[in-house]
Structure formats: structure tokens, C-alpha cells
Amino acid sequence: MGASSPSISPPARLVVLVSGSGTNLQALLDATADPEYGAVVVAVGADRDGTVGLDRAAKAGLPTFVRRVGDFADRADWDLALAEAISEHRPDLVVCAGFMKILGTGTLARFGGRLINTHPALLPSFPGAHGVRDALAYGAKVTGCTVHLVDHGVDTGPIIAQRAVEIHQDDTEETLHERIKTVERTALVEVVGRMAREGYRIEGRKVLVP
């Protein structure tokens, strides 16, 4: 991959995708309340109805959309429908904030290089749905969170930022995950704000943010 520099004019328009409680969404909503942050959330999408994340969006007066996989003939049709729904809001950046579905070719074709995700481990270690559990089972002493761009793989996209979290001897999956999520929210807010305000450049696997 050669160098590329997605064009963003502050305030950046954010579409946020959620699957659950939306704590990362809430962190972004709190941050974007400050005009100096450089970004605004313009819509929230989900892969299922009735989530707390959608409730947070409704309370903030934001438009929402739901695209459920089961409503479509196959994953490719679902992915194209999701891409269409996102496109309606003309985002500069799309943030997967606890969105538990793998995005496909249709979404990546439209928003590649602008799709941001978080993962509760220090990639490339412990990718996949059980990053916290896997780090504990491996006996790792340090784990953390990664903010990265989404590509066609599972947690394989270029890394934007990482934060370390020490693993305590008495940690359970739940206690460790809670500490990671606290760090993750802060990292996501910081990264999205910097990318919105100052732009960024992609050079191969490097994401360069001023």
C-alpha cells in the first residue's frame, strides 16, 4: 500500500457503529460536546435493535439506523446495506465502538482507510473475540488496547495507537476487561480527536498522526 492522506475538514463527521451498551459512543459524545474537539457525531448505527447504545444516541437527538444480518439473504447483502446506510450521513470517519460484526468488501470499498476500531489487547497479540481471556490464559503480564484501521482481516489493520495495561495476579477476565475498557475509551477519544483536527497519513502499515 502506498501513502495516502484521507481529506478531512474539521469538524469531522463521525458515524459510530455499536452493538451493545455504547460506553465508547458515550465517551465520544461527551468529547464532541466541546467545539474544540474537532468532530461531531452525525449518526449511530447498530446491528440489532434495543441496544443501550441506540438509547444513548436517541437521548442525544441523533439519527439512528439498524441493519440486522438476519434480515438479508447473505452477509454480502447485509454489508452493502450497511454501507448504504452509513453513506447517507456523509461521514469523514466511521468508528466501530464495540460493533461486533466483521465488515465486508462493500463497506471497506467505500470507507477503507477511514474505518476505526478498537481491540482489547496489544495487537498483533491475541486478536479475535476473546482477546482478554486469551491474554490471561497465556499468562501474559501486560496487555492493553489497540486503536486500528479496519481491513479485510480480523484485527489485522494498520495500528494507530496502543496503550498498555498491567495484568494483576488476581485478575479475572471481568476485572481485567473493565480496566482495559477504561483505557480504551480514553485512547479512542484522543485518537479520533487528533485525526479529526490534524489529519493523518497512511504509509503501508503505518498510520501517521501529527
UniProtKB/TrEMBL annotation:
Site entry: Raises pKa of active site His: D155
Catalytic residue list: H119
Amino acids binding N(1)-(5-phospho-beta-D-ribosyl)glycinamide: G22, T23, N24
Keyword Transferase: yes
Domain of life: Bacteria
GO molecular function, one term: phosphoribosylglycinamide formyltransferase activity
GO cellular component, one term: cytosol
Biological or metabolic pathway of the protein: Purine metabolism; IMP biosynthesis via de novo pathway; N(2)-formyl-N(1)-(5-phospho-D-ribosyl)glycinamide from N(1)-(5-phospho-D-ribosyl)glycinamide (10-formyl THF route): step 1/1
InterPro entries xref list: Formyl_transf_N, Formyl_transf_N_sf, GART
Domain Formyl transferase N-terminal: 13-192
Sorted UniProt keywords: Purine biosynthesis, Transferase
Reaction it catalyzes: N(1)-(5-phospho-beta-D-ribosyl)glycinamide + (6R)-10-formyltetrahydrofolate = N(2)-formyl-N(1)-(5-phospho-beta-D-ribosyl)glycinamide + (6S)-5,6,7,8-tetrahydrofolate + H(+)
Enzyme Commission code: 2.1.2.2
Binding residue positions for (6R)-10-formyltetrahydrofolate: R75, M100, K101, I102, L103, N117
Single GO biological process annotation from the record: 'de novo' IMP biosynthetic process
Family in the record: Belongs to the GART family.
UniProt-listed PANTHER family: PHOSPHORIBOSYLGLYCINAMIDE FORMYLTRANSFERASE
Biological role stated in the UniProt entry: Catalyzes the transfer of a formyl group from 10-formyltetrahydrofolate to 5-phospho-ribosyl-glycinamide (GAR), producing 5-phospho-ribosyl-N-formylglycinamide (FGAR) and tetrahydrofolate.
Protein name in UniProt: Phosphoribosylglycinamide formyltransferase
